[in-house]
Amino acid sequence: MDTGILTIVVGLTLIGFLVAGLPVSFALGGLAVLGTIYVWGWKGLYMIANTAYDEGTSYLLLAVPLFLLMANILRYSGLADELYEMVYKWMGRIPGGLAAGTVVICAVFAAMAGISSVATISMGLIALPSMLKRGYDKSMAVGCISAGGALGILIPPSIIMIIYGAMAEASIGQLFIGGILPGILLALIFCCYILIRCALNPSLGPPMQEHYSFVQKLRSTKAVILPGLLVALVLGVIYSGAATPTEAAGIGALGALICSLIHRRLSFQNFKSALLSTLGLNAMVIWIVTGAVAFTHVLAYAGVSKLIQDLILGLGLSKWVIFFCMQITYFILGMFLDPAGIIMLTTPVFIPLIKQLGFDPVWFGVIFTINMEMAYITPPFGFNLFIMKAVVPPSINMTDIYRSIVPFVALQGICLLICTVFPQIVLYLPYAMMAK
Amino acid sequence: MEKLKQGFWRKTCLFVDRLNQWTANVLCYTSVVLMLLVSYEVICRYLLNSPSDWSGEINQYLLCVMSMLGGGYALLIDQHVRVDIVYRFFSPIRRSISELATWWLVILFALTLLWFGGENAMDALIMNKKSMSLMEMPLFPSLIMVPIGALLILLQALARMVRCVLTLKTGLDEVGNEKSAA
User: Are A30 and B41 within 8 A, CB to CB?
Assistant: First the structure.
């Protein structure tokens, strides 16, 4: 069969299976089996079994269950309540202060957890009822939590970055460090937006009347000690090169466990559900990587990846046009698909392409992650939107949630643009780290 | 007769659910062991100044155990990422039809891993293959995880397809039961 026809057949079959609702991991894995039989014959199927074993014993992916464990334990640590109380006392009197403070807490959580759901659930349960009670506009309250929660994947640690790094063969440590400044930038953009809008129109986020003495405020500030230590520990060891991301994940998980034991929040029931959630998510990640790696092997051998690459490069477009098209593709896929699935589906074509076009894989990975921030909150199937739907009071419906995220998606787009025009924001810290 | 048969199939599906749930209940502690081993290794290196040579490799095998064997559980709780643009709006009957038309691919994938992964593991056992590191650990225990994991996925996928058939027969949403069973 001609490679061109093969490409079209494989592409259409894949789309067919995915639209029918088949899990991405098994759609890719199953097609890899069919492709292997077609390209190599029966003997080639050993390769697929080997792929599963290789990914299952991968040292890089070892960081995934550990960061998941850390995040899942943090959910039950009580740290979120303390941090919110602090924000409440310090910032409650500023118009929009609670919403801006919520974004800051989300950023702090993002620096401890590698997934977005932890901050989104915690803040949805703690900050949302509090803000609504104080008369905050529901769009503002819901939007800031959905968007703030998504910071989880950009500010290191980040499961998405680990998967990207493993697939694109980019340094995970550098990706993590590269995510720090863009993450802080995005959090700042969110806060500025909230504070400016609420200053212009205080009815969006009315200031509260309660007054706290300076001593009371200062006492609430002790809430930052444990999270601060945890963040410093995890990022510090990665940045200084003292430990690999995998080791940092192990220490971080232990630290999170100790924090929750100090707060006496972790019941055995909660602990067990944290472990089970870790197990399920980890298996999902490893199996999707297995399926995608096997699929990529087949596509590469059959010449499909090269064909698509040559086709795109043959158009003679400038590399920035191709870059722009890639981002649009990511954005559209992000409306329908989880970021882990997007990496897997686009890797065979996009990763070789960015290398050939001369983009820095670390920089591209961070830009990709910023784009995936949007994926978490863009309708119809943004992950955080469904978490929000599960925690909001019945008076807020899905349309309200969809409407609330519009300005935040625009702000994320601006952040993406800034980091594209000024790549130093992404690359300054990783280069400084390497230069040491 | 018809009813008896359906009772049998439902019980079998429930058994598969319980098998994967039970596996998960036991397996979930692996991540705690991993955490402790990784932390131990770092502490050894920095505080005691004597890096351990065995924990790194053990950790990789532990990851293999929990990832491979966790696949069936992830299927049970519907954790695997999928695109539900169209699927979400299907009626239970149409979902069942579309699943029956596509899930054979999962079966094929799992069977491949079961067969060829199993052969890899048997080879390692017979030829007494050892890892290339200083530890020279036998490879069989970790290699066998691939076919066992594939078997768990296979069973859960088959249970799902049986439930789809039941849905077509009864017109009730039998697949949805999976989540409540978990």
Answer: no
Which whole-number Å values give the CA distances from A123 to A78, A83, A101, A103, A224, in the listed order? 12, 10, 11, 9, 16
Secondary structure letter of residue A348 according to DSSP? H
Distance of alpha carbon A271 from alpha carbon A94, whole angstroms: 37
pLDDT tens, residue by residue, A398-433: 889 999 999 999 999 999 999 999 999 999 999 998
What type of residue is A432?
A
Q: Please report residues of A whose CB lies closer than 8 A to that of B99.
A: 20-21
Non-local (6+) Cβ contacts of A311 within 8 A are: none
B48-88 pLDDT tens trace: 777 777 788 899 999 999 999 999 999 999 888 877 777 77
| Residue carrying the six token digits 């971080």 | A252
pTM comes to 0.90
Torsion angle, alpha carbons of A421, A424, A425, A429, to 10: 160
The Cα–Cα gap between A67 and A110 comes to 12
Tokens of B48: 């005691």
Nearest to B98 among A20, A50, A381 (CB): A20
Across the interface, of B34, B59, B81, the residue whose CB is closest to A23 is: B81
Predicted confidence at residue A349, as pLDDT, reads 86
Q: What are phi and psi of B130, to 5 degrees?
A: -125, 160
Say how far apart CA A187 and CA A250 lie, in whole Å: 27
Question: Average of pLDDT values for A208-229?
Answer: 87
| Averaged pLDDT of chain A | 91
Q: Which residues of A touch B74 (CB under 8 A)?
A: 279-281, 283-284, 287
DSSP string for B83-139: --TTGGGS-HHHHHHHHHHHTHHHHHHHHHIIIIIHHHHHHHHHTT-B-SSTT--BS
Question: Cα angle at A277 between A231 and A367, to 5 degrees?
Answer: 50
B134 touches chain A (CB under 8 A): no
Give chain B's radius of gyration (CA, Å).
21
Cα–Cα distance, A77 to A86 (Å, whole number): 16
**Distance, CA of A346 to CA of B63 (rounded, Å):** 26
- pLDDT of A76: 84
Could you give the residue ranges of the DSSP H alpha helices within A303-423? 304-314, 319-336, 339-357, 361-377, 383-391, 398-421
- Determine, for residues B35 and A58 on separate chains, whether the beta-carbon distance falls below 8 Å: no
User: Phi and psi of B135, rounded to 5°?
Assistant: -65, -30
Contacts of B60 in chain A (CB under 8 A): 57-59, 62
B62 neighbors B33 (Cβ within 8 angstroms): yes
